[in-house]
Design brief:
The protein contains 15 helices and no strands. It has helices spanning 2-15, 24-59, 63-68, 84-91, 93-126, 132-141, 147-161, 167-190, 195-203, 208-219, 221-236, 240-245, 253-263, 268-288, 290-298. It is globular, with a radius of gyration of 28 Å.
Length: 303
């Protein structure tokens, strides 16, 4: 009896012992993971937005005000803000036409890459055909081909078939170089879909196209949204391909702004609002699909 009571007493004393003190490193880490880190990240985010804010304010100032002082002086003189630069931008036919060209290039190039990449990714993930793995390996190997290597050969090819200098030629180039990454990304994502789910749909009489449209596409929404954002940003901000494959009538906004700088070095009242519009549209697209983008990036990290 006494021995049993002694053992109980030892267990009780052990269980009720005071917890060990945290080390100073653990205490510092715990404090840093709280409000201090949030404040630091907020400051970093604001610092990252400074160029965008500066460009916006510069686009709302008169050229003589911009040449006389920095954009931050507007906080002391808010009366300097004006929309005259945007009015002049809308009156500049080259800029407005190039903005339309950018939309005509970016939207089809993004949609085609998403659609074709989704179909190919599903085929490589769940359809059986001869040489499937070898074909997929060949597609993935295209990821290592630099864009600069293909510029001259494809430019000569497009010149022979009459596509050089056209919007269609720029779209095809972007689609061709965007598909390898799209197929690689979506195939790996679609391969994580449970086989039982697809088999159940087949037992219910769903064909491959219906299975792809009703089951695979909804489940692959986050990855598809991430791919669409990447492709949109790449094509919208592209300048190298546009410089090589476009002419005066098919230039996007990036090339048009560069041309304005070369021809009219003091044309800041047009360049500032044009550059801001060119930059803010991708930001709007990114923030509009931010939730889907994060879901696509984190897909597969948590089971």
């Amino acid at each position: 009896m006494t021995a049993t009571a002694g053992r109980i007493g030892k267990v009780t004393s052990t269980d009720t012992a005071a917890p060990a003190r945290e080390s100073w490193a653990a205490r510092i880490t715990g404090r840093l993971s709280g409000g201090l880190v949030r404040v630091f990240l907020l400051l970093v985010g604001l610092f990252w937005l400074v160029p965008t804010i500066g460009l916006l304010i510069s686009s709302l100032r008169a050229p003589e005000d911009m040449s006389a002082s920095g954009w931050w002086q507007v906080f002391a003189k808010p009366s300097e803000l004006t929309f005259d630069s945007y009015r002049k931008l809308l009156e500049n036919g080259d800029i407005t036409h190039s903005l339309v060209n950018t939309v005509l290039i970016t939207v089809p190039a993004t949609v085609l890459v998403v659609v074709l990449g989704s179909l190919a990714g599903y085929a490589f993930a769940w359809m059986e055909f001869p040489g499937r793995d070898w074909w997929f390996l060949g597609v993935v190997s295209l990821l290592v081909v630099p864009v600069q290597v293909a510029l001259i050969p494809i430019a000569e090819l497009f010149g022979d078939i009459g596509l050089f200098g056209t919007i269609l030629g720029v779209i095809l180039f972007h689609v061709g170089f965007g598909l390898p990454f799209a197929v690689f990304l979506l195939r790996n994502f679609f391969a994580e879909i449970p086989r039982e789910l697809l088999e159940a749909a087949r037992l219910d009489g769903a064909g491959e196209l219906r299975l792809f449209a009703r089951v695979v596409m909804p489940l692959g929404g986050p990855a598809i949204a991430s791919l669409g954002i990447f492709q949109f940003l790449w094509v919208w901000n592209d300048m190298l391909v546009a410089l090589v494959f476009t002419k005066s009538g098919s230039q996007p906004i990036t090339v048009a702004l560069q041309t304005q700088v070369r021809q009219f070095g003091n044309n800041i009242d047009v360049l500032a609002p044009g550059a801001f519009i060119s930059m803010v549209i991708p930001l709007v697209v990114f923030f509009a699909f931010q939730r889907q983008f994060v879901s696509g990036v984190m897909a597969g990290a948590v089971k």
